[in-house]
Amino acid sequence: MPNESIWDEALCRRYADSMRKLARYDHRGVATRIARHLGGLRPRATVVEVASGPGFLAIELGRLLTEPTLVLVDSAKPMLSIAEEEARRAGVPVRTIESSGDRIALPDASADVVLCKNLMNCIDASQRIDVAREIARLLAPGGWAFVADFDVAGSRLAATLIGLFTRFLVGAEFHRDFRAAFARRLDPGPLAAVLAEAGCSTSIERSGPSFLLVARRAQA
Ligand SMILES: C[S@@+](CC[C@H](N)C(=O)[O-])C[C@H]1O[C@@H](n2cnc3c(N)ncnc32)[C@H](O)[C@@H]1O
């Protein structure tokens, strides 16, 4: 899934239909880890998910927070229509913005939490840096960013086992896409450096095939 232009209606539907079966294992687990970091988050916080896809991570996290404002950003219009359907079904209100992740029409420092999961392996190294800068721009003082993706140091054994599980649960086509995405695994270091330059403290949590880059912008 190397660039944004390939995300047509058919691919968006196929991705969402597959991921819906996996979200309780994948996105719910990530959301639970994120919510632990956000222990003292104020009610009605603004959560922006960059490259939300069908919105499963924001929806799962939204269930764990108090009256959040959820903003889903994706470059594929069909994906945002699907995300709106998913959110309606889940009873979680969302706003959507059709936009590339490196130039989002939201003001500086307007997000308490920014999420970005499995976009970075789909784009080239220079666009990754632009997206990381955009995430930093959106973060309010004291705000948190979480970037999850396939890790260059990730466990191949874990990827193989998860791949077999997805093949069993979702099918051969998704399994092929999963393997291709894992093959594009990346180093979170340069992304952490961008967020650190922008005044965030950062840490990288490694688990199975993936990393979770955690960044917190200093309080004003
Ligand atoms: C592999 S999916 C991940 C979706 C979701 N984050 C998840 O974890 O299920 C990648 C998503 O990134 C979107 N995308 C691709 N390039 C993008 C870009 N440059 N800016 C914003 N979204 C992009 C695609 O439309 C797709 O919804």
Q: What would you say this structure looks like, in words?
A:
There is one protein chain. With 220 residues, the protein is of the alpha/beta class. The protein contains eight helices and seven strands. Helix 1 packs parallel to helix 4, helix 2 crosses helix 3 and helix 5 runs parallel beside helix 8. The radius of gyration is 16 Å and the shape is globular. The model has no long low-confidence stretch (mean pLDDT 96). Bound molecules: S-adenosylmethionine (SAM).
Topology:
Elements: H1 9-22, H2 27-37, E1 46-50, H3 56-64, E2 69-74, H4 77-90, E3 94-98, E4 111-117, H5 125-138, E5 139-150, H6 156-169, H7 172-183, H8 189-197, E6 200-207, E7 210-217
Parallel strand pairs: 1-2, 1-4, 2-3, 4-5
Antiparallel strand pairs: 5-7, 6-7
The structure holds S-adenosylmethionine.
What attributes does this structure have?
alpha/beta, Rossmann fold, 220 residues, 7 strands, 23% strand, binds S-adenosylmethionine, 7-stranded mixed sheet, single chain, globular
From the alpha carbons, calculate the radius of gyration and give it in angstroms: 16 Å
> The CATH topology is what?
Rossmann fold
Number of domains: 1
Small molecules bound in the structure, each named once: S-adenosylmethionine
CATH class: Alpha Beta
